[in-house]
Amino acid sequence: MTLFLIGMPGAGKTYFGKRLSEYLNIKFYDTDEIIEHKYGKSVREVFSEFGEKDFRKIESEALDYCFGISEDIICSTGGGIVEIQENLNKLKKTKTVYIKKSLEELENRLRDEIRERPLFGDEPFKKLKTLFEKRKGLYEQFPSIEVPFQELSEAKLKEIIGEINRIEY
Ligand code: S3P
Q1: What 8-state DSSP symbol labels residue 5?
Q2: Residue 118 pLDDT class (50, 70, 90 cuts)
Q3: Pocket residues for ligand 1 (CB within 6 Å)?
Q4: Residue 117's pLDDT is what?
Q5: CA-to-CA distance for 38 and 16, rounded, in angstroms?
Q6: Which three-class secondary structure state does DSSP give residue 97?
Q7: How far apart are CA 87 and CA 68, in angstroms?
Q8: What pTM value is reported for the model?
């Protein structure tokens, strides 16, 4: 199965995606990693250098790259991927799940690293809340799953896979 993962920064998309891909023995892609590979810089640097508007274009290209892969993959996307309508349209035609977390969970999760992320600026928690509120409705257009932050046991992983398999696309 090819599966796209969406959700806020800090939701655990990458950790879950990697675990899932290892378990299913299929390749893992991450739009942030594709960008880093292409530009030879961290996402942080690309974001700061190009600005948010161009970053969204770059990110959409990385997503398109993943849509073009013919074998089954797990693809984790940057939190802002849903801000571009065209991306939403394309994601709706594939298997996409929203890794749902509450604002409180994200605040706790990002507490130690939020200041290092350029996206969140000078008032990071305020920005996190704004982004959460702006994107919530966009993410919720997709089926959601709950993935714990704790290390995922095989039993839990199987349970989540079962849940994903039951989603009708
Ligand atoms: C962003 C999320 C980041 C990264 C960039 C912008 C966003 O990815 O793409 O900093 O706008 O939410 P993660 O969601 O993987 O942290």
Answers
A1: E
A2: confident
A3: 9, 13, 32, 43, 47, 78-80, 117, 119
A4: 84
A5: 24
A6: strand
A7: 14
A8: 0.97
Predicted pLDDT at 52: 93
User: Residue type at 33?
Assistant: E
The dihedrals phi and psi of 29, each to the nearest 5 degrees, come to -125, 155
CB 146 within 8 A of CB 100: yes
What does the DSSP 8-state code read for residue 151? P
Contact 6, 13 (CB under 8 A): yes
Strands 73-76 and 3-6: parallel
Q: How many A from CA of 161 to the centre of ligand 1?
A: 24
Q: What values do phi and psi take at 159, rounded to 5? A: -60, -45
Residue 92 β-bridge partners: none
Residue carrying the six token digits 């966009």: 138
Separation in Å, CA 29 to CA 74, 87, 114, 154: 6, 16, 23, 21
